């Protein structure tokens, strides 16, 4: 999916990040805090928490991004090198993103930089604030913006966050292929140390207003210029001592990727209310309830839904507007989907090849697998009400309502799966049900291998529930190597793109501001996990990028959903989540609405946490 902002591949255990074209998030106007969009209530959760007490001067905040010890992550200070969603959340107080966006994800003026589009000239001019400085006091320059783009184009780690819409920039291919020492489409209007960069395109991306195809980050060239490209992602300048032009800067990073931020005195905007923020990432989830009982954390960014209730008994739900905590929620801007392994990724040509000898090359077989899935039952039983079946490849987040295609039927009308309809599609593919209840063709049983991930207490149960539903529909499915794999192994297999020993796997994505899909489904996309190559798909992706109006862009995105899901079943959308947070009663300014400088606005009304009662009363 090419799009602005970050795309994050995630799954049951940790979360592989894919930062997409432009990671765009614009900053708010000069000396005032951003006015957030209205928070929307979801289910039983309100969208914000309004503390009636005023914030004190200073104060410290502790934030946790829950995870599991089985899915370790490594902190990096810049979005270009990010490979984990939890780290993307952890980076927010000290972001290196240039742009702010409105409630629908469109770039808006004000903030670290502004963007001016000239469609007749096919150029975009990025202008940095005069007072935009790194946390070491050095100016953020046009060269820093170019260095970010160059790193995405050539660095082995950062290249996974490179999107094909950047190829519209003049000279990008020659630079990427080593035929040129610089990107000819970049013009330093007032010199490399200046504040203005004009980017020239062969054709402007259709979603440029959302930041698609726009260099939307900066990397401190003066700090990193002497580090070799191969060492950039691992140098302590990135992992321990990154710079920032956000409201906070990194003070320290521990061995377990716990990060302490302190107020950035060189921040261009209004100074942050808090003195410091400590971010804990992937702490042991099993200890979270005990940690909350001791008010160790002020904010739990995303509640592990499997721990909300233990059977019928309250676990983390003990803190649902009680015991000193307020709960908030929203539709997350992400979704999960079932991938079919149809080929491989050719690293020499950097392209996907749909050449695998598998029954899954037949769309009817893929549709049968989709209809057989008991997604509704699995979500209801194992998500504690935080996950809902979804029909399409756009989330139910309110920021995506323009693009969500309600007409896509999907495969989950029946919560327990539709074995009858699955059988009908298998018969279309030439299969017949044998006396053992399984479908076969030419004397060979339809047998598939499921690459399932570990990571939560219910991972194995969920995998077995899907396998049982497929069996009920006459499809034999076995686990990869007869076990679940950890997130790191899963990532190496699916991103590597050459393993031919799996047929099905569940993946998921956190969207950027516009749900365009080149980064996930283009022929050259490293994250095209199913290795789908189709002329119709390529045409749609091209047409989407060449859309001449917002209405045409939206129409093409909806056409993509129908083709990928209903027509070809190249993937089976499964679930979309509700994301809930827990906030201690002393926190001020918390909201789930889009707020471009949330952590600058957060404060605390007391130096001591709230320990009892419902903070909303």
From TrEMBL:
<dbReference type="GO" id="GO:0015833">
    <property type="term" value="P:peptide transport"/>
</dbReference>
<dbReference type="GO" id="GO:0043190">
    <property type="term" value="C:ATP-binding cassette (ABC) transporter complex"/>
</dbReference>
<dbReference type="GO" id="GO:0042597">
    <property type="term" value="C:periplasmic space"/>
</dbReference>
<dbReference type="InterPro" id="IPR039424">
    <property type="entry name" value="SBP_5"/>
</dbReference>
<dbReference type="GO" id="GO:1904680">
    <property type="term" value="F:peptide transmembrane transporter activity"/>
</dbReference>
<dbReference type="InterPro" id="IPR030678">
    <property type="entry name" value="Peptide/Ni-bd"/>
</dbReference>
<dbReference type="Pfam" id="PF00496">
    <property type="entry name" value="SBP_bac_5"/>
</dbReference>
<dbReference type="InterPro" id="IPR000914">
    <property type="entry name" value="SBP_5_dom"/>
</dbReference>
<feature type="domain" description="Solute-binding protein family 5">
    <location>
        <begin position="116"/>
        <end position="527"/>
    </location>
</feature>
<protein>
    <submittedName>
        <fullName>Oligopeptide-binding protein OppA</fullName>
    </submittedName>
</protein>
């Amino acid at each position: 999916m090419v799009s602005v902002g970050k795309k994050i591949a995630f799954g049951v255990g940790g979360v592989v990040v894919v930062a997409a074209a432009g990671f765009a998030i614009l900053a708010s106007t000069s000396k005032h805090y951003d006015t957030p969009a209205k928070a929307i209530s979801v289910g039983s959760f309100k969208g914000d928490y309004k503390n009636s007490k005023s914030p004190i001067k200073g104060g410290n905040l502790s934030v946790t991004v829950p995870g599991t010890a089985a899915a370790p992550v490594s902190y990096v200070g810049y979005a270009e090198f990010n490979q984990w969603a939890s780290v993307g959340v952890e980076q927010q107080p000290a972001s290196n993103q240039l742009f702010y966006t409105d409630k629908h994800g469109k770039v808006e003026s004000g903030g670290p930089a502004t963007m001016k589009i000239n469609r007749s000239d096919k150029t975009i001019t990025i202008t940095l604030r005069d007072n935009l400085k790194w946390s070491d006091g050095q100016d953020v320059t046009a060269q820093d913006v170019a260095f970010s783009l160059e790193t995405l184009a050539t660095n082995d780690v950062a290249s996974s966050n490179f999107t094909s819409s950047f190829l519209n920039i003049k000279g990008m291919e020659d630079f990427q292929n080593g035929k040129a020492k610089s990107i000819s489409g970049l013009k330093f209007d007032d010199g490399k140390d200046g504040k203005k960069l004009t980017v020239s395109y062969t054709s402007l991306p259709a979603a440029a207003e959302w930041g698609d195809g726009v260099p939307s980050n900066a990397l401190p060239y003066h700090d990193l210029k002497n580090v070799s490209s191969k060492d950039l992602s691992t140098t302590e300048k990135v992992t321990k001592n990154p710079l920032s032009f956000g409201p906070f800067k990194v003070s320290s990073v521990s061995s377990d990727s716990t990060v302490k931020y302190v107020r950035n005195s060189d921040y261009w905007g209004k100074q942050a209310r808090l003195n410091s923020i400590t971010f804990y990432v992937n702490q042991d989830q099993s200890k979270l309830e005990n940690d909350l009982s001791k008010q160790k954390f002020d904010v739990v960014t995303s509640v592990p839904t499997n721990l909300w209730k233990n059977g019928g008994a309250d676990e983390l739900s003990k803190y649902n507007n009680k015991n000193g905590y307020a709960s908030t929620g929203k539709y997350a801007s992400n979704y999960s989907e079932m991938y079919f392994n149809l080929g491989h990724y050719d690293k020499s040509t950097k392209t996907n090849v749909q050449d695998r000898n598998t029954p899954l090359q037949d769309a009817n077989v893929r549709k049968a697998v989709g209809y057989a899935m008991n997604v509704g039952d699995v979500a209801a039983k194992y998500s504690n009400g935080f996950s809902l079946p979804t029909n399409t490849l756009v989330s139910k987040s309110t920021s995506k309502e323009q693009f969500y295609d309600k007409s896509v039927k999907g495969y989950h009308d029946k919560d327990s799966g539709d074995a009858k309809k699955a059988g009908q599609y298998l018969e279309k593919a030439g299969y017949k049900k044998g006396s053992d209840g399984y479908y076969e063709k030419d004397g060979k049983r339809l047998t598939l291998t499921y690459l399932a991930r570990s990571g939560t207490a219910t991972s194995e149960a969920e995998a077995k529930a899907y396998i049982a539903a497929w069996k009920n529909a006459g499809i034999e499915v076995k686990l990869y190597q007869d076990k679940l794999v950890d997130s790191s192994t899963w990532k190496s297999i699916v991103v590597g793109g050459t393993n031919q020993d799996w047929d099905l796997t569940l993946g998921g994505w956190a969207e950027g501001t516009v749900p365009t899909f080149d980064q996930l489904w283009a022929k050259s996309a490293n994250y095209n996990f199913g290795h789908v190559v189709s002329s119709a798909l390529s045409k749609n992706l091209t047409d989407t990028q060449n859309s001449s109006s917002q209405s045409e862009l939206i129409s093409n995105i909806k056409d993509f959903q129908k083709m990928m899901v209903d027509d070809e079943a190249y993937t089976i959308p499964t679930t979309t989540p509700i994301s809930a947070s827990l906030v201690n009663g002393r926190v001020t300014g918390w909201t789930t609405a889009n707020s471009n400088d949330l952590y600058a606005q957060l404060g605390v009304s007391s130096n001591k946490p709230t320990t009892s009662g419902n903070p909303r009363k």
